[in-house]
């Protein structure tokens, strides 16, 4: 049987993944920076200490696993050594990264690759990627594909907060005239119309990896990813970019010493979200795809565990770096998650 390892098993989402694996009685190894944080895993069969700054410990980890689920973010800070090393090994790797720059660096790598690498197998980008594969036609030319997210509450985990604080220090991208371009200043879209969100008509550019996946898998001229927010919040966010940010090192040091927990289960399970994809074909046909539900962190755990289950029982061609939909669309991952998480989806022509 393939050996499954969860890296970052004591983080907020890593804990949810491990708990779900235990419920399903799927054996796994917990790879953590501190073994002292593991006593709550009563059924845990194995554990290993790994420091992602230590090449020897990373090498030993990769030699002892067949499927690695990486929950340690921000990936741009803690992932580069691991990503370079894992390409030497015939393993399946998936992460939960929502960081454009990290994913782009991986997609752009031309080093020999013995692994099967799946990025962004988590709530936001995985669902958008899967929705696009399900409702859009990759053989058609698209003038526009934009993704939008709405959240009705903000109570992020420590890892999410960490990533949100540092993402502006790394390159951000959108698609313009069919080419990936760097976005040097955030911007907003206005006069938008979202069903069930009539009072919100603006969205702030926020760099998510699905833009890279659309560039890879679709013929699209214009593409970006956005957060739906009220106008006051957008203006506040844009105004902050007029001030020079503190050095990245000081931000990392401050966040590394901050003790933050994520939302309690009863809060997490009531966190509502809505996802939209607005697509316009070159021929002029417009389509609005939507998905709505609750519990973003729980959905990420379900996505990661279901993906791991597919990898445990099946084989993929090694030597590739792919999106969640490239890896699991044919396996029915979207349908499985939609059913298990009680999500509602729709697609309409405008």
Care to describe what's here?
The protein has helices at residues 12-23, 55-63, 75-78, 80-86, 100-107, 123-135, 158-166, 210-217, 231-240, 248-256, 265-268, 296-313, 324-328, 333-340, and strands at 4-7, 29-32, 46-49, 67-70, 92-95, 116-118, 141-151, 173-176, 179-182, 188-189, 202-205, 219-229, 272-281, 286-294, 320-322, 344-349. With 350 residues, it is an alpha/beta fold. Strand 13 and strand 14 (286-294) form a beta hairpin. It has 2 domains: 4-123 and 297-343, NAD(P)-binding Rossmann-like Domain (Rossmann fold), CATH 3.40.50.720; 125-295, 2-Layer Sandwich (Dihydrodipicolinate Reductase, domain 2), CATH 3.30.360.10. It is globular, with a radius of gyration of 20 Å. It contains 14 helices and 16 strands. The relative contact order is 0.17.
- Chain-averaged pLDDT: 92
Spatial order of the strands in the main sheet? Answer: 3-2-1-4-5-6-15
Shape: globular
DSSP strand content: 15-25%
List the domain count as a whole number: 2
Radius of gyration: 20 Å
Q: Low-confidence parts, pLDDT < 50 over ≥5 residues?
A: none
CATH superfamily of the largest domain: Dihydrodipicolinate Reductase, domain 2
Would you tell me the structural class of the helices and strands?
Answer: alpha/beta
Compute the number of helices: 14
Tell me roughly what share of residues is in helical segments: 25-40%
Oligomer: single chain
Distance between the termini: 49 Å
